[in-house]
Amino acid sequence: MTREGTGLAADSQLITSLFALIPIPVAIAEESGRIILSNSAFTDLFPGVQNIQLMPHHEVEIPGRGTYELETVPLNDQGMKIVYATEITNEVQLRRQVVHMEKMASIGRLVSGVAHELNNPLAGILGYAQLASRSDLDPSTAHMIAVILAQAERAGKIVQNFLSLAAKTEPKRVGFDLNDAIRNVMQLREYQENVDNVIMTTEFSDGLPLAWGDPHQLEQVFLNLIVNAEDAIDDMQRRPGSIHIKTTVEAGHIQVTVTDNGSGIHARDMARIFDPFFTTKEKHRGTGLGLSICAEIVKDHGGELYAWSTYGSGSTFTLELPIRNEIEIEEIQPIRASQAHSLRGKQFLVIDDEIHITELIFDVLARQGARIDLANSGVDALEHIKKKNYDVIICDQRMPGLSGQRLYRMVESLNPEFQHRFLFVTGDVVNDQTKRFFLQAGVQYVRKPFRIQELVEAIEKVLSRTQPQNF
Prior knowledge:
Heat Shock Protein 90, elongated, five-stranded antiparallel β-sheet, Beta-Lactamase, alpha/beta
């Protein structure tokens, strides 16, 4: 062999070696589609494939390997083609997450609307149950009214929890009871767990220090951990399922453990469970972001989230938060008798598009000797306000036509003194726009459904701001 031939052979061998070692899966196919050459990366990814006509086009998801995009480009005039695959796992997962987030945003808006519509009838049920409970009833009827009252309050709390979880809120830092935050989430899952025969037990520390952080964000963490536990139990079809939640203080930290008897986590996956987009669930059951987001939330609170598991027997997730001893919850001081304003003879305007709400508030105020006008729209209310001087204007926020906020601004322009006489009664307090309005205007509000005593105390606060106190 000549030196020139030796050189060509060496170059050919070098090219062949380079082709084989390229990390991108590459193959060369004839015009007919028959693969005549492929590198090791291609063979490893598509074992046994000998014809590109048999290969899926565009995107292909390979179990355990990720998602790849296939491209075919011409090589020469004889019809030969180059086929190569590019991994797009992260791009696909990000795209799916955007779709998922848009879907969740739509669901959040739907939940918010449905919850608001539920708050109005719940306000009527709860209010009239309270009025009925104050009547002289026989023991049997009193018991039935007490059940109605308790269940209406329970429904109201569940609706409020849904609204809080669906709301887009800025992170805040307050002192709060972690046990109560967990109870709020448990209420959301109570029905589903009864249906699925999952028993949830708790072991709450009575002397648990106050946590410092955003209660809504941490409720999202607990909700994710509980739903994950339910999914793990469902995978095993072990019934009854068991979820145990424990709070305690360990080594200067508040500690929460969530233990289940589900399928557990395989040892090979333990190191990756908090990685973004990693999931062992089927596509329709998870995006692989839940635990990574939870870990970030806990980290942002100065804490840590970790887990241990026995595959096939269950898992325990542990959340630790630092203790801040200086936290105190502000106590709401009751109105002193000497400071309380009598409602007798006071002039009220009650505005709500739900007639049963205006009638309920009318019944409450009339029993205390107040004089009341009713309006079922903002336009009707404006005509009343132009003609009469009211001590307190009780107004809904969300109404057809003229909203409570727009009515407030219009009345404010007519008579600035009236701006401190408004009391809003609404179920829309988690809405960002509503919260900003209440904060900027500095108005009093009561959340639907409400306790009668809450309404009366809020009215007294409005009166204390607008009228002199008698000592």
